[in-house]
Amino acid sequence: MSYLRIIPHLFSFILVLIIGFTSIGNTADSYFNKSEKAVVCKEPLPIFTLGENSNPNNKQVSKLCSCVWNEFPKGGWEQKTSEKIRNGNDPGWRGKGLIQRFSKALDKCGGYKL
Question: How far apart are CA 89 and CA 61, in angstroms?
Answer without folding.
Answer: 24
